[in-house]
Amino acid sequence: EPEVTQTPSHQVTQMGQEVILRCVPISNHLYFYWYRQILGQKVEFLVSFYNNEISEKSEIFDDQFSVERPDGSNFTLKIRSTKLEDSAMYFCASTPGLSQRAKNIQYFGAGTRLSVL
Amino acid sequence: DAKTTQPNSMESNEEEPVHLPCNHSTISGTDYIHWYRQLPSQGPEYVIHGLTSNVNNRMASLAIAEDRKSSTLILHRATLRDAAVYYCIRIIGGSQGNLIFGKGTKLSVKP
Q1: A7-46 b/e with 16+ CB inside 10 Å = b?
Q2: Is residue B8 a contact partner of residue B88, using CB atoms and an 8 Å limit?
Q3: Looking at the predicted structure, is the pLDDT value of residue B24 above 90?
Q4: Cis ω before B44 (30° cut-off from 0)
Q5: CB-based contact B60:B52 (threshold 8 Å)
Q6: Interatomic CA distance for residues A80 and B103, integer angstroms
Q7: What angle do CA A52, A34, B36 make, to 5 degrees?
Q8: What is the pLDDT of residue B2?
């Protein structure tokens, strides 16, 4: 069964450093998402991406964050200058992209644990 | 406001059915109800979704009230592997389809 793949599983970085979290969505999917979950808290939407541009973003997704689909398979989340409060699990998701978006099923990766020291 | 209301936690015995309730009293006609679950240390996983009619799949059943203001996720025979946080999410019709997670219901399954 196709799955969303995220690498690395755990990323440790120093505060102020740039990190890139990588995701390989399911191959025929058209919509891509990033979510994050701070330890012990709920899953929070960050950004959605379609047709090589951001469809929607939350208040969390400020200028320190960016997303990119550099080739036909990868989808990346970059945090430009990490802060301690960026420590969280980051989940990538993808969906086939039915015309009626509210029916779309999202498929999640296993996540990348980001630890900012 | 696409908020839903769920109990914080529920307990079940293994092999018994589990009914997980969700209230979505402000739902409108084109909004879908989706259920996802998150097993410990894993990403969210799709369970089931519906609009008006009851739905069944290999994982669960979804019973939607006639007025659509509430729904119930039914696990027919709980297993230890079903212990997870279950999220009831209302997706607004015509929206981008982004998932707005609440705190969900933490289901514990006792052997």
Answers
A1: eeeebebeeeeebebbbbbbeebebbbbbbbeeeeebbbb
A2: no
A3: yes
A4: no
A5: no
A6: 29
A7: 125
A8: 63
pLDDT of B95 > 90? The answer is no
Identify all chain B residues contacting A109, using CB atoms and an 8 Å cutoff.
43
Q: How far is B1 from chain A (nearest CA, A)?
A: 15
To 10 degrees, the CA torsion angle through A31, A36, A37, A39? Answer: 150
Residue in B closest to A95 by C-alpha: B97
> What single-letter amino acid sits at A73?
S
Closest Cβ–Cβ partner in B44, B45, B91 for A102: B91
For the segment B69-90, the average pLDDT, to the nearest whole number, is 96
- Judged by CB atoms closer than 8 Å, whether chains meet at B100 and A45 is answered as yes
Per DSSP, B77 falls in state S
Averaged pLDDT, B73-96: 91
Question: pLDDT value at position A77?
Answer: 98
For residue A87, give both structure tokens. Answer: 């420590």
CB contact at 8 A, A21 and A115: no
Side chain identity at residue A80, one-letter code: R
| A76 touches A20 (CB < 8 A) | yes
Q: What is the 3-state secondary structure (H, E, C) of chain A?
A: CCCCEEECCEEEECCCCCEEEEEECCCCCCEEEEEEECCCCCCEEEEEEECCEEEEECCCCCCCEEEECCCCCCEEEEECCCCHHHCEEEEEEEECCCCCHHHCCCEECCCEEEEEC
- Entry field: residues in chain A: 117
The shortest C-alpha distance from B44 to chain A (Å) reads 6
Q: Give me the pLDDT at residue B63, please.
A: 97
